[in-house]
Specification:
Blueprint (H helix, E strand, L loop, with lengths): L8 H8 L10 H10 L1 H13 L5 H7 L3 H11 L1 H13 L7 E5 L5 H9 L4 E6 L2 H13 L5 E5 L9 E7 L18 H11 L1 H8 L2 E11 L6 H11 L2 E3 L5 E7 L2 E12 L5 H12 L8 E3 H11 E11 L5 E10 L5 E8 L5 E6 L3 H17 L3 E4 L5
Parallel strand pairs: 1-2, 1-4, 2-3, 4-5
Antiparallel strand pairs: 5-8, 6-8, 7-8, 9-13, 10-11, 10-14, 11-12, 12-13
Helix pairs in contact: 1-6, 2-3, 2-5, 6-7, 9-11, 11-12
Length: 387
C-alpha cells in the first residue's frame, strides 16, 4: 500500500544537520562515556533505567542537557525522522500557509517544515518546557525565521491552521485506563477507541480551517486504535484520503517499530465500511487454509466469519479489570465449522477452527481452561452481551 519513493529527502536533511545515528545494544551508554566520562555515564545509565519512558519525569531527564537530549534522539529517532520527512516531502501539496505542528519534541521536524515551506507560518507547540527550549535552540541554530513556539496543550492554541502535522502524539493524548481489553470483538474495540480519542480529535478539528488537512505520522501499529481514531475523525467531517495511507517500519534503538501515515481532510466524509476495510487491508494477512490465527488477524477473521456464540466467558482479576476472554462460535455460513477464541492478558490472542463433530470436546476443553483460571484466583463471568 506504500508508494514508490524517489529522492531520500529525509536522509539529506539529517546529513545537513550533522545527525549521527547511534546504534548497537550499548551504543547509547558508549556515547555517554564519550561525552561525559565513565562516572557520569554510569550515573546517567542508572537514572535512565529508573525512569518510565514517556513520563514527564523521563522528558525532564532527557531535556536536562542538550548533549544528552541529542544522544537520545540519535539513538532512537534517526530512521523515524528520515521517513517522516520523506512522507511530508511527498505530500507537500497538503500543506498550507499556516502549519500547526502538534508536539514539536526536539525540533527536528520543526526545522524541516520551516525549511520545506519557507513561505508558510509554522506554529509549533509542546506541553514540555524542555522540548520547547530544545526546539527553539534548533530553530535558532539553523536560522529558520518562520516559526513561533507555544508551551501548552493543543486545545489552548488560538490560531486556526490550514494544516496540522502530528507525529507520535496519539498515545500521549488518550486515557490508557480506558483502553479496551485486546481480546474483545474487534468492532467493539473500534468503537471504544473512537470514544476515547474523542477529546483529542475535537482539539485537532477545532484548530483546522474548514478545508484544512491533518497530516499524521504516528506509531499506531495494527491495533484497533488506528481504525477507531479514523472513525472518530470521520464523524467530525475529517475523512481519510485512502491514497495517502502508508506504513513504515522504522529502526528504533536496535529494534523495529511500525508507523502509519495518512492524511485526513476537512469536508471529506467516508463510508464507515471503507475505513474498516482499509484497516483490514493494512493487516496484509492471508487467512486461507490456516487453522490457527494470532492477534488482530484472529479477531478480524472472527469478525468476518463468526455466527452464533456457542459459549463465552470473561475473566477478571481481583481489581475487577478484565484479563481474559474465551469464546466458541459457529461459522456464519458453514455448518461444518466452529471456532474457539482464547485471549489471556500477556499472551497472544489465538483463534482455532474445528470441525463441528468436535464441539463437545471443545466445550469440555473450554471448561478445563475456565476451571484452571478460577483456581488461579480469577473471576469468571458468562458472556451475555453478544449474539
Amino acid at each position: 500500500m506504500s508508494k514508490k519513493r524517489s529522492a531520500d529527502i529525509g536522509l539529506q536533511f539529517l546529513q545537513n544537520i550533522g545527525f549521527e545515528r547511534i546504534s548497537g545494544k550499548y551504543g547509547l551508554r558508549d556515547k555517554w562515556v564519550q561525552l561525559f566520562g565513565k562516572e557520569r555515564a554510569d550515573q546517567l545509565q542508572a537514572e535512565f533505567l529508573r525512569l518510565d519512558e514517556g513520563t514527564k519525569e523521563f522528558y525532564e531527564f532527557k531535556y536536562s542537557d542538550p548533549l544528552l537530549n541529542r544522544s537520545f534522539d540519535e539513538f532512537y529517532d534517526g530512521d523515524i525522522i528520515r521517513k517522516a520527512c520523506n512522507y511530508v516531502a511527498e505530500h507537500k501539496d497538503c500543506f498550507g500557509d499556516v502549519i500547526l505542528e502538534a508536539g514539536c519534541g526536539s525540533g527536528y521536524m520543526t526545522v524541516f517544515l520551516a525549511q520545506t515551506f519557507p513561505e508558510s507560518k509554522i506554529i509549533s507547540i509542546d506541553r514540555s518546557e524542555g522540548a520547547i527550549r530544545a526546539a527553539r535552540e534548533m530553530a535558532a541554530k539553523y536560522g529558520v525565521q518562520n516559526v513561533s513556539f507555544e508551551l501548552g496543550e493543543l486545545k489552548d492554541v488560538s490560531a486556526k491552521a490550514d494544516t496540522i502535522f502530528c507525529m507520535r502524539t496519539i498515545q500521549e493524548n488518550i486515557d490508557e485506563s480506558a483502553i479496551p481489553f485486546s481480546g474483545e470483538p474487534i468492532i467493539a474495540q473500534f468503537n471504544e477507541f473512537r470514544s476515547i480519542t474523542g477529546e483529542y480529535t475535537d482539539s485537532l478539528i477545532s484548530r483546522l480551517n474548514g478545508s484544512g488537512s491533518l497530516v499524521v505520522f504516528e506509531r499506531i501499529r495494527h491495533d484497533p486504535l488506528m481504525c477507531g481514531w479514523l472513525l472518530g475523525l470521520n464523524d467530525k467531517g475529517c475523512g481519510i484520503s485512502k491514497d495517502s495511507y502508508s506504513e513504515f517500519t522504522c529502526n528504533e534503538a536496535g529494534g523495529e517499530s511500525v508507523f502509519q501515515a495518512f492524511i485526513c481532510r476537512m469536508g471529506r466524509k467516508n463510508e464507515e465500511q471503507d475505513i474498516v476495510s482499509l484497516w483490514y487491508e493494512s493487516l496484509g494477512v492471508n487467512h486461507e487454509g490456516k487453522s490457527e490465527l494470532k492477534g488482530w488477524s484472529a479477531l478480524s477473521y472472527l469478525n468476518e466469519n463468526a455466527g452464533k456464540m456457542i459459549r463465552g466467558v470473561r475473566f477478571y482479576g481481583e481489581n475487577g479489570i478484565q484479563v481474559g476472554r474465551l469464546a466458541a462460535y459457529t461459522d456464519i455460513d458453514d455448518d461444518s465449522k466452529i471456532y474457539c477464541l482464547k485471549a489471556l492478558s500477556g499472551q497472544d490472542v489465538l483463534l482455532w477452527s474445528y470441525g463441528v463433530e468436535l464441539k463437545e470436546e471443545l466445550l469440555n476443553e473450554m471448561q478445563n481452561i475456565i476451571d484452571i483460571n478460577v483456581n488461579n484466583g480469577l473471576n469468571c463471568k458468562e458472556i451475555t452481551d453478544e449474539g
